[in-house]
Design goal:
Cytochrome Bc1 Complex, Chain A, domain 1, disordered N terminus, single chain, alpha+beta
Length: 445
């Protein structure tokens, strides 16, 4: 996310964001950035808990708990959260990843007090809504979400990739949504313990971006959140990079699809590692539209694939480069050989500075697009604070990539991709025999 820069000039002015940051007495970090282009406010509240923080007996709990957060609290009845916010012209959603759980909403500026009340009430008094009937309801909702998601074409692929890429004791191995047994087995007592352990002000960052006066908005935040009990510091999280992922593992998923898809993954580095920038640039050099290595050779010029892409997934404690390529006709082993050939070609015919500049322009455009959308800007500021300890990190992180050279791109390609045996996942039609040789069915119980 951060590993982008302008090798040809200065950091764009729009990337220099100077928000107000304050930490309340109960430990809640508050970040505010005025943006008066529309009369709306975006709120992004991120808790430092994801599926990697679950114990073995809590698999799937972080995601299930995301749902429970909407079931009511001391002064917000069941289902009222959505109803009240919608009635005020707002909307909201949430997501759970391996590293965080985040709740976000957007609303007219006049609804700021309502939004802050809703979030503060469930941060402080959610236990009032932790009832057996609410837990039972959300278990059914999550089971349906899992069933519907896995029934979608390619819907099991990302979870299957986690299974084959990390060993069983790795915190990124198990699916965020959990297994059926995980979801059905969670209890009310475990729910309450999970909330007490992780959902506390000192483990959260609240970001507001939009049409407000900073001092006035900060006063309203203090009003609604200062009485949230300080339950002490959250449990210390493991932060050291986790290396030692599985290599040379080949899995397959038989699916209701019309064409085959090959995934290739290589273990890389976590967010913030010195090589993360060059790895990001590498993926844009290889696959980002016309004029990039893999897309020209396998899609535009020769139509060997119907779709192909590559990205660097850098998380808190580990990272992967992930490639996907689909084709209705070309066998997946052939696609893998073509990919290997292009990676080898990159070492023999390194990218030029113009190639790197092209990649950076594309990345710059994507960041510009995010900054134009208040809720995306709020997410960027939250991630800045969460991962770098400062909300105004974007310009500095952008500038770090000024040192990325074509030689760096070649170096990381050689180190992390060419000299490493990738894992592969073959998504194939039911009964098809076109998987990579030696691929074993990946079970997602």
């Amino acid at each position: 996310m951060w590993a982008v820069a302008q090798a040809w000039g200065a950091v764009p002015e729009s990337f220099v964001v100077e928000p107000r940051v304050e930490t309340l007495d109960n430990g809640l970090v508050v970040v505010l950035a005025e943006d008066h282009r529309t009369d709306t406010v975006a709120l992004h509240l991120v808790y430092g808990v994801g599926s990697r923080d679950e114990t073995e007996a809590e698999r799937g709990c972080a995601h299930l708990f995301e749902h429970l957060m909407f079931e009511g609290s001391a002064f917000v009845p069941t289902n009222a959260f959505d109803d009240w916010l919608t009635s005020a012209g707002g909307w909201n959603n949430a997501y759970t990843s391996r590293d965080v759980t985040a709740y976000f909403m957007e609303f007219p500026s006049g609804a700021l007090d309502l939004a802050l009340f809703l979030e503060s009430d469930r941060m402080a008094f959610l236990e009032a809504g932790l009832l057996d009937e609410n837990l039972d309801n959300q278990q059914k909702v999550v089971l349906q979400e899992r069933e519907e998601g896995y029934a979608e074409p390619n819907g099991r692929d990302f979870d299957a990739l986690g299974r084959i890429s990390w060993p069983a004791d790795h915190p990124y191995h198990h699916p965020v949504i959990g297994t059926v047994a995980d979801i059905e087995g969670f209890t009310l007592e475990a729910s309450s313990a999970f909330w007490q352990r992780h959902y506390r002000p000192s483990n959260a960052v609240l970001v507001l971006v939009g049409s407000f006066d900073t001092e006035g908005a900060l006063d309203r935040v203090r009003h609604w959140f200062s009485d949230v009990p300080d339950r002490g510091a959250a449990a210390q999280r493991e932060v050291a990079p986790l290396v030692g992922g599985v290599r040379g593992n080949h899995g397959k998923v038989e699916d209701q699809v019309e064409e085959r898809t090959l995934y290739m993954t290589w273990e890389t580095v976590p967010e913030g590692h010195p090589d993360a920038a060059a790895l990001d640039v590498l993926t844009y050099v290889m696959a980002d539209g016309r004029g990039t290595r893999l897309e020209d050779r396998l899609y535009f010029d020769r139509q060997r694939t119907s779709a192909i892409g590559m990205f660097h997934w850098a998380s808190d404690r580990a990272g992967r480069v992930i490639l996907y390529a689909s084709s209705p006709k070309v066998p997946l082993p052939t696609i893998r050989k073509l990919v290997d050939k292009e990676l080898a070609r990159l070492l023999k015919r390194p990218p030029t500075q113009a190639d790197v500049d092209r990649a950076l322009r594309s990345m710059e455009g994507e960041i510009h697009d995010q900054l134009e959308i208040p809720r995306r800007k709020a997410q960027l500021l939250a991630e800045c604070y969460r991962t770098r300890g400062r909300a105004d990190c974007l310009a500095e992180e952008w500038g770090r990539v000024l040192s990325v050279t074509p030689e760096d791109v070649v170096r990381v390609a050689r180190t992390y991709l060419v000299e490493q045996s990738p894992n592969t996942l073959s998504n194939i039609p039911v009964g098809d025999e076109g998987a990579i040789e030696g691929a074993v069915a990946v079970e997602l119980p």
